[in-house]
Amino acid sequence: MQDFWHWVVFKRANGNACVLDSASSLATNLRQDFDAMTPKWFIEVQSTKQKSE
């Protein structure tokens, strides 16, 4: 198998974590099999919430 890369999105909400993965080879695009994933690097994105006045 040849190495390749593609974008995925990690999401944590209400104490649950998942990865949204667009790979067409997957049975479902919602992944929680973290042991099978081998990321080489990542870009952290932090949420900023605006305070309502």
Question: Considering DSSP H and I runs of 4 or more, what fraction of the residues is helical?
Answer: under 10%
Number of strands: 3
Strand neighbour order, sheet with most strands: 1-2-3
The Cα radius of gyration reads: 14 Å
User: N-to-C terminal Cα separation, in Å?
Assistant: 54 Å
Structural class: mainly beta
How many strands, what sense, and barrel or not for the largest sheet? 3 strands, antiparallel
Q: Name the shape in a single word.
A: extended
Strand content: 25-35%
* Mean of residue pLDDT values: 85
Assembly state? single chain
Question: Which stretches of 5+ consecutive residues score pLDDT under 50?
Answer: none
Helix-strand sequence:
EEE
- The helix tally amounts to 0
Topology:
Layout: E1 8-13, E2 16-21, E3 30-31
Antiparallel strand pairs: 1-2, 2-3
Could you walk me through the main structural features you see in this protein, from its secondary elements to its overall organization?
- By secondary structure, the protein is an all-beta fold.
- The protein has a domain at 1-35.
- It is 0% helix and 26% strand.
- It contains no helices and three strands.
- The chain has strands at residues 8-13, 16-21, 30-31.
- It has a three-stranded antiparallel β-sheet, with no helix packed on it.
- A hairpin with a 2-residue loop joins strand 1 and strand 2 (16-21).
- It is extended, with a radius of gyration of 14 Å.
- The chain starts with 7 loop residues before the first strand and ends in a 22-residue tail after the last strand.
- The model has no long low-confidence stretch (mean pLDDT 85).
